[in-house]
Amino acid sequence: MTLQYRLIFALFMSLALSILMTAWVTWINLGLVDGFIFKWGTAFITAWPAAAVISFLVGPRVHLLTTWTISKKKEAEYDTQANQP
Predict the structure, then answer these.
(1) N or C: which end of the chain has fewer CB within 10 A?
(2) d(CA 47, CA 44)
(3) Of 47, 59, 39, 42, nearest to 21 (Cα)?
(4) What does the alpha-carbon distance between residue 76 and residue 81 come to, in Å, rounded to a whole number?
(5) Maximum Cα–Cα distance for the chain, whole Å?
(6) What is the pTM of this model?
(7) Per-position DSSP letters for 4-58, written without gaps between them
(8) Burial class, 22, CB count within 10 angstroms (exposed 0-12 / middle 13-18 / buried 19+)
(9) What is the C-alpha to C-alpha distance for residues 6 and 11, in angstroms, rounded to an integer?
(10) Alpha-carbon gap, residue 4 to 30, rounded angstroms
(11) What's the chain's Rg over C-alpha atoms?
(12) What DSSP character marks residue 1?
């Protein structure tokens, strides 16, 4: 995985998550009030840079954890099939 790929992926993933999560949490906390868009926008502008950095830094570890989890699942499936008569 190249640095360019990691950076662009982190930006797009954090953008999508920040839009959805800040809208959701703002709605949960305030409801659909006057000025909702402004309040959501403020939350989004604050959250997206942090989410992008976190996604970029934590993404490779999550990728490794996913790979490890899938390989353990495959090992368990193989062991189950090998032990059947």
Answers:
(1) C
(2) 5
(3) 47
(4) 9
(5) 67
(6) 0.69
(7) HHHHHHHHHHHHHHHHHHHHHHHHHHH-S-TTHHHHHHHHHHHHHHHHHHHHHHH
(8) buried
(9) 9
(10) 38
(11) 20
(12) -
The two structure tokens encoding residue 81: 């099939």
Supply 61's token pair. 């570890």
Give residue for tokens 């090992």.
Answer: 75
Exposure string over 40-74, b if 16+ CB within 10 A, otherwise e: beebbeebbeebbeebbeebeeeeeeeeeeeeeee
